[in-house]
Design brief:
The complex is a heterodimer of chains A (437) and B (305).
Chain A lengths: L6 H25 L9 E7 L3 E3 L10 E3 L3 E8 L3 H31 L7 H17 L4 H40 L4 H21 L5 H15 L4 E5 L5 E5 L7 E2 L2 E2 L11 H10 L4 H23 L6 E2 L7 E2 L18 H7 L5 H42 L3 H35 L6
Antiparallel strand pairs in A: 1-4, 2-3, 5-6, 7-8, 9-10
Helix pairs in contact in A: 1-11, 2-4, 2-6, 2-7, 2-10, 3-4, 3-9, 4-7, 4-8, 5-6, 8-10
Chain B lengths: L6 H28 L10 H56 L5 H22 L2 E2 L2 E2 L27 E5 L2 E4 L5 H4 L10 H14 L2 H58 L3 H24 L12
Antiparallel strand pairs in B: 1-2, 3-4
Helix pairs in contact in B: 1-7, 2-3, 2-6, 3-5, 5-6
The chains are: A mainly alpha (437), B mainly alpha (305).
């Protein structure tokens, strides 16, 4: 087979077209340099099928395979799906830790320790009031002082218990808002399912729908903040998404299974909220701890205040002062100047009640500290993985500029080849075989 | 080491650095402005529970201080009253010696008898001394006077002790059993001071030789016995005052130690924090500077137009 005369022009043209397409990809990369979730793309160039030149022909000598130029095989996105799955695992863990830290911090602020407004100070003031009464058992003011200090202490316990309950209720509301019908989780799941359908169609046409894949990956990243997410890619291009410890996959093809039941083991923000508010969770633990303080206070004081119980109610939410100033007992014998009861109650300072309260505050502090430290550590890890992902998928302007020069020069060279061929053909057409002059 | 570095990596890590520099700066600044290193329990959970305990102990100590001061007031009021009673008894003794030497006539004896009766009344008034509205010699019946005015001498209080807390688990009796010295007066025949005084007055009024003899012997002897009891009671009360004072010194020492421990646990080391603060300020400024200069240059700047 002879070489077509204009083959060189075609080859040069393929070069022009390929460089132009590669330049378009570069332009798209630069345009999306700051787009969230964008993976850089690259035009994969491959050589066009060559022309077989048979040997031993008059014009071609030994024969050979003549290249016919280049074409763009596909435009592919640069992405490492293993980094994606690592990123999502860490993102769930971070979201869980930071949710815990946030809720626990609120609880810690409710305790308001160490400060003059804290319960510790009011407990101390209550014991001091009994001591003042022991110094002046007949003083009406000292009796009033004991009742007032007791009432303030009881009220603070009621308030603190209610505050912890409110924090717990708000956490439950937050869970409902995210995981309920029409919540964020369902919204993201529906978008993923929709993209699954579109991606499946596009894959059938043969070319990867890069922008849809990027959008789906970004949605999966966001979903991983709510609970642990595992993604398994199906042969038809759809992603099957399992979410937390839900029984059925959240997204399967274009179907969404939501709402489902999650437990504290779901991970992410939702798992953290469930573990905080659930029975045996930290918030319930704090309320129990506070109830122990209240019970120890009521029992301790009532055991000594024998005429009539000083405190009624033995939980933090219900404790209140049950006596009037006149009913406050100062002595076991009932004599006006006796103060053995007042002295004994004042001696409760630093006892079981104070100790259990201090231990409770210490526990809250340790929990907050733990959650905060975990958050900081996970943030560092997540940043590192995010950087690795960026290192693979992020757009580097320097690199794009370099590519731009390469493609520009390639285009110029192809064009130059074309004009060289043109002038060769001109020689052939204009200057050879002039007849009849 | 990562293969490719992209501008967004640089900007995000610069932002992280600026944030972390700012957050440590904020921490030091709030430690400096509050003077405390424990601002909330999570800063130092164990330290917080220690602060709570130490603060409560300190509050307890200031309660003890007020108890001790109240106790000192009580014992001083008591010793004052007992000193007065002692002086009165001394005066009775002098009168008794005058009456006993036999040169006085019956009329003189009678007028001495009147004076002794008046002095007895004065003894009872001193026994009715009050401190902060409470009768100090009534036992725990602090609202009623131990002795009524007039010829009736029966003790109105009880024998219970009045206690003041002077330290953790430690109480001290501040009341003095003056009734043990004064007794229940004439009718009771208990041989205590009031009984003796009434007997002396009676013997003086009678003025008979037998009565005079009684005055010189038994009555004088009984009076002396009771004076000794009074002095010994005064000494006991005095030693209670001394114990209260030493308790106060002990509380003050303890208060100093606890305040120091509290400060060590809770308060920021200002010098250290100040140095950390300026270091962090420098780090923050550097991070800001890096942030302002970074990612301005790229290959773009060096390509021909």
């Amino acid at each position: 087979m002879p070489i077509p005369t204009l083959q060189g022009l075609q080859t040069a043209l393929s070069g022009l077209l390929a460089e132009q397409q590669a330049m378009d990809v570069t332009a798209n990369n630069i345009a999306n340099a700051n787009t969230e979730g964008y993976s850089r793309e690259t035009a994969v160039l491959q050589t066009s099928p060559p022309i077989e030149i048979p040997a031993m022909s008059a014009t071609t000598g030994e024969g050979g395979r003549l290249g016919t130029g280049v074409n763009v095989q596909t435009i592919t996105r640069i992405r490492n799906i293993y980094l994606d799955s690592q990123y999502r695992t860490q993102n769930s863990a971070l979201s869980s830790a930071s949710t815990q830290a946030e809720e626990l911090l609120q609880t810690q602020s409710a305790f308001n320790e160490p400060s003059a407004a804290g319960l510790a100070n009011q407990l101390s003031a209550f014991w001091s009031a009994w001591n003042s009464l022991a110094n002046a058992p007949t003083s009406e003011a000292a009796r009033e002082g004991v009742v007032a200090a007791g009432e303030q202490l009881a009220r603070s316990m009621n308030t603190l218990s209610a505050q912890i309950e409110t924090i717990s209720a708000q956490a439950t509301q937050q869970y409902e808002a995210r995981a309920g019908v029409g919540g964020e989780v369902e919204g993201i799941a529906r978008q993923i399912a929709q993209l699954n359908g579109q991606i499946k169609l596009a894959e059938q046409s043969g070319q990867p729908p890069n922008e849809m894949l990027d959008r789906r990956d970004l949605l999966l990243d966001k979903l991983s903040a709510f609970a642990n997410v595992t993604v398994s890619q199906q042969p038809d291009g759809t992603d099957t998404v399992t979410f937390g410890d839900a029984a059925k996959p959240l997204v399967e093809g274009t179907a969404v299974n939501w709402p489902q039941t999650l437990t504290a083991a779901a991970g992410g923000q939702l798992g953290a909220l469930l573990s905080l508010t659930g029975p045996g969770g930290k918030l319930a633990g704090y309320r129990e701890g506070l109830d122990e303080v209240a019970a120890s206070l009521a029992k301790g004081v009532n055991a000594l205040h024998t005429t009539t119980p000083f405190f009624a109610g033995e939980t933090a939410a219900t404790i209140k002062v049950a006596v009037t100033a006149a009913e406050v007992q100062t002595s076991s014998t009932g004599t006006p100047g006796g103060n053995d009861v007042a002295l004994a109650i004042a001696e409760l300072r630093g006892g079981a009640t104070d100790q259990s309260y201090a231990a409770l505050v210490e526990r809250v502090g340790s929990d907050v500290k733990g959650a905060e430290e975990e958050t900081t550590n996970l943030k560092t890890t997540l940043t590192a993985i995010g950087n690795q992902r960026q290192s693979v998928s992020g757009v580097s302007l320097d690199e794009e500029m370099t590519n731009m020069i390469a493609f520009q020069r390639g285009y110029q060279a192809s064009a130059r080849t074309m004009s060289a061929l043109d002038s060769m053909l001109e020689t052939l057409i204009e200057h050879t075989g002039v007849v009849g002059l | 080491m990562l293969g490719r570095i992209t501008p967004s990596m640089i900007s995000s890590s610069t932002l992280n650095d600026i944030n972390s520099a700012l957050s440590s700066l904020e921490r030091s600044s709030s430690e400096l402005s509050s003077g405390k290193k424990i601002l909330e329990p999570s800063d130092d959970p164990y330290g917080t529970s220690r602060v709570i305990n130490l603060q409560s102990q300190l509050d307890g100590l200031s309660s003890y201080t007020s108890s001790v001061q109240d106790g000192i007031g009580w014992t001083q009021a008591s010793t004052g009253a007992m000193a007065n009673i002692g002086e009165i008894t001394q005066r009775v003794r002098e009168l008794l010696l005058q009456a006993a030497n036999g040169t006085l006539n019956a009329g003189d004896l009678q007028s001495i008898g009147v004076e002794v009766t008046q002095l007895t009344e004065a003894v009872k008034q001193d026994a009715n001394t009050q401190y902060a509205g409470q009768f100090v010699f009534s036992g725990t019946q602090t609202t009623s006077a131990p002795y009524k005015a007039g010829p009736e001498d029966e003790f109105q209080g009880n024998g219970e002790s009045v206690l003041r807390a002077i330290g953790p688990g430690a109480t001290l009796e501040v009341s003095s059993n003056l009734a043990g010295v004064l007794g229940n007066g004439g009718g009771s025949g208990d041989g205590k001071l009031l009984d003796v005084l009434r007997t002396i007055a009676q013997h003086l009024t009678e003025g008979t030789p037998a009565a005079r003899k009684e005055l010189a012997s038994t009555d004088l002897k009984n009076l002396d016995t009771n004076m000794e009891s009074l002095i010994s009671l005064e000494a006991t009360t005095g030693s209670a005052t001394a114990q209260l004072r030493s308790a106060q010194t002990r509380i003050e020492t303890l208060e100093g130690a606890l305040t120091k421990a509290l400060s060590n646990t809770r308060d920021a080391d200002i010098a250290q924090v100040s140095i950390a603060y300026s270091n962090e300020q420098a780090a923050y400024t550097a991070a800001l500077k890096a942030g302002a200069n970074i990612v301005q240059e790229s290959l773009l700047n060096f390509l021909r137009e």
